[in-house]
Amino acid sequence: MNDLEPTRNLAMEFGRVTEAAALLAARYMGRAAKEDADQAAVDGMRLILNSVVMEATVVIGEGEKDEAPMLYNGEVLGTGAGPQMDLAVDPIDGTRPLAQGRPNSIATVAAAPRGTMYDPGPFVYMDKIAVGPACKGVIDIEKPVEDNLTAIAKALDKRPSDVTVVILDRPRHDELFTEVRRCGARIRMIDDGDVAGALMTAWPDSGIDVLMGIGGTPEGVIAACALRAMGGEIQGKLYARNEEELKRGRELGFDFDSIITMDSLVSSNDVFFAATGITDGELLDGVKYISNGARTETIVVRGITGTVRRINATHSFDKLDMISSLHY
Questions:
Q1: Distance of alpha carbon 298 from alpha carbon 307, whole angstroms
Q2: How far apart are CA 41 and CA 73, in angstroms?
Q3: pLDDT tens digits for 254-291?
Q4: Per-residue DSSP letters for 115-169?
Q5: Which of 271, 263, 264, 231 is nearest to 132 (CA)?
Q6: Pairing, β 106-113 against β 293-302
Q7: What is the model's pTM?
Q8: Half-sphere exposure (CA, 13 Å, Cβ side) for 71?
Q9: How far is residue 320 from each of residues 41, 95, 124, 165, 255, measured CA to CA in Å?
Q10: pLDDT 10s digits, 87-122
Q11: Rounded to whole angstroms, how far apart are CA atoms 7 and 199?
């Protein structure tokens, strides 16, 4: 199909998917129950995904199928009719912040036409750099940190000391922290949730200019769908945690030295992305419970039109419980 021929607009449908995941997971905020929160989000996400008119195969999910009832790689969801899609899901991006009652936990889903989404196989980490529309085309993950920050500052008409970099707070980033500080740029450390971190680079007034560092490969694919739709850019390189993983990857035909471009991560413009806040964050407000209901904030993006919608919804638990097999 020609990319310029719009397919069915599934963006709003996926907003319902992430709303359901967020409503059920938010009950576990601060309760130190990561597994229970994950299960609740998965149950909500699967229920609504199976009502969407599509035949979607999970490319980015919870790994190979086992006894755990998670959204597993290769699972087919939807009604079985309609477009054939690749699906990337992260029912909770930021499980630990949710369990600890901290900010920046979101529910996310992304989709693209079948066969257009990157499959990282068993390799769960990648080095990444992500920017918003103003800096598209000026980054190069193989260049030194200083070169990238200088190019980003120039594209934004800022001084390097005005550039803000979001980085996961991990010991593996000690050298990166040192390099960024040496350049005089500002650092925003986050505990988890690098999908939200990448999205903030393309979100007006977020105050975040670039995401750098090693994070999840699945999250990189999901972020690529959103950034492609929003006009930003992400580049990555697979990251092996040890020699055994490196050897296994090479045996399977994976290249740990080449750049994974945004076109490689998702090769179609006809992408869809949705995210709903679970806990409050810079990107989205979290779930707010009210008398017999809740309020949510969601963004939905359709790549082929570039339309970004911000949706504030009020949910009635009385009515939802009458039609849903899940108890909200």
A1: 14
A2: 17
A3: 889 899 999 999 999 999 999 999 999 988 999 999 99
A4: T-B---TT--EEEEEEE-GGGTTS--TTS-HHHHHHHHHHHTT--GGG-EEEEE-
A5: 231
A6: unpaired
A7: 0.92
A8: 31
A9: 16, 25, 36, 41, 47
A10: 999 999 999 999 999 999 999 999 999 999 998 888
A11: 24
